[in-house]
Amino acid sequence: MMSLLFRPDLDAGEVFVNFNQNTTSLAVATKSGYSLYSLGSVDSTLDKIYTCPTEEIFLIERLFESSLVAIVSQRSPRKLKVCHFKKQSEICNYSYSNSILAVKLNRERLIVCLEESLYIHNIQDMKVVHTIRDTPSNSAGLCALSSSSEHCYLAYPGSVTSGEVQIFDAINLHAKTMIPAHDSPLAAIAFSPSGTELATASERGTVIRVFSSLDGTKLFELRRGLKRCVSIASLSFSTCAEYLVSSSNTETVHVFRLERSSSENSEPKQSSDDWMGYSFFRFLSKTVSSYLPSQVTDVFSQGRAFASVTLAEPGVRRICTITKIQKQLRLLIASQDGYLYVYSVPSMEGADCQLIKKHDLRLDDCYAMDVRVNPAPSLGVATGVTTATNIIAANTTDNNTKHNETKASPSSNSYATALKGDASSNVASIGGS
To answer: What pLDDT digit, counting tens, does each position of 46-62 carry?
Structure first.
């Protein structure tokens, strides 16, 4: 039985929202289909790229700015469809032994997460190149794939009782490292844009940690709060990797600044008699730490939120990210109740994030669009597009060569074009990788 923890309640009017890998577009799925939006002018308008009235969709992932989207519907939760939305064609589809809980994409790999296994596809021809079997039960479908092709790493929970993170090299197809990140089970994980850092949060939700994905070294420890029973819903690095933003089941979104300069250069200069300044606090914390238990001294070294946003409604699942839009840092918060919030990011610690725009994602019902919107893709395939239907058997014995594949080589020109990306698919460009 799969968990419905992260699925929207479509009957209650909720939506599925998801940013693409470099935060240039937003995907929104409702009861009546899905839409893709450009984020290039989000301060004022939310420009629509594409709308498709189709069946109820609970998972959708777009590959950067390309025309390639991966979707999973409510009606067929075991089937993954890869589509070329501009040509309104289905490139291939795969069926699995259990329900799909998550799908992740980058320019090299497509990852499908089931409750107790992970399938790694080569995105160039959609062949299954490796299967990670018998993973610890992962009913929430928690996993992360780096958007970087150079450090193409996959992260997933390594235990159901503690916060172990397994990092897998998705290119060379071998386990890289295991990080004992938390004492409690994991609730959220996210890679930095370069793939060299991994942020983690546990089910307790009070501390967020950042590790090197190369060797498992702890780089940052950030204090989100002191409350128990806080569920982290989203962790995300900014596109410049200088900030980390988190949301939870509370009404507060926290923004942390990751100070990467050396401690000597970052310490402000204080006069010798500035007893209440930064130098005295550093001296006090070091002195006190020699007398107090490690659990108490950890609090002294943990970073605090650089800025925060308080929204009206607690208990709403939200995903957050920070990116540059028209050369300005923006905090974007997309919520499952159908809103996209745009905030400025302050330059000084402790200042407020100012609300710039609130977009209602539910106003654009897919069945109420004007005649210029493309019709839904049919079950058939446009001329020249290869279809692949693959049944991934539960008892497959050879991960690299035997996957009961009937056809998995969508090598047509349209597929290659979609992988490379199409500049015309963006209404406006924004900053970022």
So the answer is: 999 999 887 788 899 99
